[in-house]
Here is the input.
Amino acid sequence: QSALTQPASVSGSPGQSITISCTGTRSDVGSYNLVSWYQQHPGKVPKLMIYEVTKRPSGVSNRFSGSKSGNTASLTISGLQAEDEADYYCSSYAGSGTLVFGGGTNLTVL
Amino acid sequence: QVQLVQSGAEVKKPGASVKVSCKASGYTFTTYYMHWVRQAPGQGLEWMGIINPRGGSTTYAQNFQGRVTMTGDTSTSTVYMELSSLKSEDTAVYYCARNGNIAVAAYPEFWGQGTLVTVSS
Here is the structure.
């Protein structure tokens, strides 16, 4: 089970849109519509932002959206706000009851 | 509301074992899988494994097989994660996290507050 690949960092200005990619393989991202995204502020517990590729839990802003194409999933944040500055992690079901996370992406709001 | 309350911080010597507890409330304990995830200082999230509290079946990540044991106690709605043969690299915050749905054990949704385990001689 190798970690999913995410860019180490991305940045954007307030009001802009950014996209974070999450690349896996045919054994995980490519085989299941079970990709999730988490937001983690420093010293805080991870928060689920997107599940099953495109779904948002109750209470999560519709500025957050997810998509997938082949072995790569993406998280898009539109209308960037200062409070969006955090680390973001993707995860994917990898078969046989296992899960794999990405290495994480640090988002800076300029 | 769903609440997961974990046991307190631990300091262990290399070679020892640690057992972290996670008490669940606010939902039917046996209905949802429970994940364990850890995060070393300044590092990313690492999935350790999952337990089905109904029956106790488990699946462990390859990196932890042979060293981790996850158990559950339905009488107290508590799950446990025991990690043995500790090394300094096991220093991390350990989280329990309840799965988001009952059908597929594919995404931790509700997280405990985390338990810091420090391994040091």
Remarks:
- The longest strand of chain A covers residues 86-93.
